[in-house]
Amino acid sequence: MNQKRKAVFEEASVWRAIFTMAIPAMINILVMILYNMADMFFIGQLGNSALVAAVSISSPVFTMMMAFGSMIGGGGCALIARTLGAGDSEHVRLYSSLCCWGSVLIGGVFTIVILLFQSPILSVLGANSEFWGYAKTYLTILAFGAPVMIFTTGMGNVVRSEGAVKEGMIGNLISTITNIVLDPLFILVLKWDVAGAAAATVIGNLAGAGYLIRYIRFKGSNLSLSFKLAASAPGQFRKIIAVGLPNGTNNILSSISATMANNLLVSYGTVAVAAMAASGKSTTIISMIQMGICMGVQPLMAYNYGAKKLARLRETVMKLEILTFTFGLVTTLFCLFQSESIIHLFLKDPNALELGTQMIRLRVITGPILGLYYISSNFLQASGNAKMSMLVSLLRQGILFIPMIYVMNAMFGVTGNICAHIAADTLATLIGVILAVRQYRSLQKALVS
């Protein structure tokens, strides 16, 4: 780690350190949001709800790929940052090499599984005859891009471990800008509709991966892409997965819960699926940026934990709470007052527009408090308590949400489908805060004694 980045971790004021780490991460997440919205926005301009539904139905597979990238990258980032804080640079190169080749291997498995079991996968996702063909085309192209997509997500997180937040952000910017430039060309000019959207996504990731490889090879002071090094100790990859599992689990469960929600919504028609997809894309900015802030600052928490600087760790967490709550409140109010204008970006059908507007107004209710959920999860992960971090990740999209969505959908229909998200978010946040406070107190007692 160079001296400038080390000074941010150890000497800069906490607010300065937070913003140094969080602002690039926020930009990075904004870029990812634009990246995720681009396909649906340009597809929406074609005025065909079936195309929007096809992209929505396929999105859990995309989310699953990103989940494994986040698992590898988040685990590698936390582990490498903690290792740097403890002064052990020898294992840093090993962990980064394992993240590189582990992401490529898992991406290859994704490609094979999706291509071999495409029809069963589409059935599970809830595709119906109206948009089955569109969804199959989109999914096939994504399958071929899986290795590079998982690599880009994973290694974009890994470079943050040594304080190179800006470089990780640039990698994602390159991916997104490439995607956004290609989307209108492929979708609107060449008339490739969903095939064009998927192709733009894969090519964008290729561009981002190229930048990250160049940075790590020529500028990364501690990181490595050596296959030989990774092959020398493949068993160490388990440590990366163990630490990153909470990050990955949260996204995996998000994919599973989206699949369940879509399956329930299909019974209300294609319009309901399209409206839920558009409202979800519209409101995801609140939770995604709060998550990005916390993930961006996680190396700072992990480093101070490894260096046993408890006071700085506590101050970091408290100021993160202020930052995420303020952002959540402002963006929630904006979405409430601009819901009609926002949903109109993605949908043209009057029925879908009305339903999507109602969905936005409900989905943003928990926006101000979600930051506490992400702080709790990242704090537990940064302090090495993988089990509790895993539990918190399981709560929001799994343990609480899955039973709630079936019960509330049966009781209240489409409205119940949305209210299940609100109830799960609230309870998961409350439990996460309680567990994080207990973890902090146990750390305090251990370090004082």
Structure, explained:
With about 450 residues, this protein is mostly helical. About 85% of the residues lie in helices and about 0% in strands. It has helices at about 5-10, 15-45, 50-85, 90-115, 120-125, 130-145, 145-160, 165-190, 195-220, 225-230, 235-265, 270-305, 310-335, 340-345, 350-365, 370-380, 385-400, 400-410, 415-449. The longest helix has about 35 residues, at about 50-85. It is globular, with a radius of gyration of 21 Å. The chain starts with a helix and ends with a helix.
Keywords:
mainly alpha
Question: Could you write a compact summary of the structure shown?
Answer:
The protein has 449 residues and is mostly helical. It has 19 helices and no strands.
- Determine the structural class based on helices, strands and strand pairing: mainly alpha
Please, how many helices?
Answer: 19
Give the DSSP E fraction (strand runs of 2 or more residues): under 5%
**What proportion of the residues is helical, as a percent range?**
over 70%
Euclidean distance between termini CA atoms: 31 Å
User: What kind of sheet is the major sheet?
Assistant: none
- The rough form would be described as globular
| Mean pLDDT level | 83
Uncertain runs are: none
Our Rg estimate from Cα atoms comes to 21 Å
| Number of beta strands | 0
Order of helices and strands: HHHHHHHHHHHHHHHHHHH
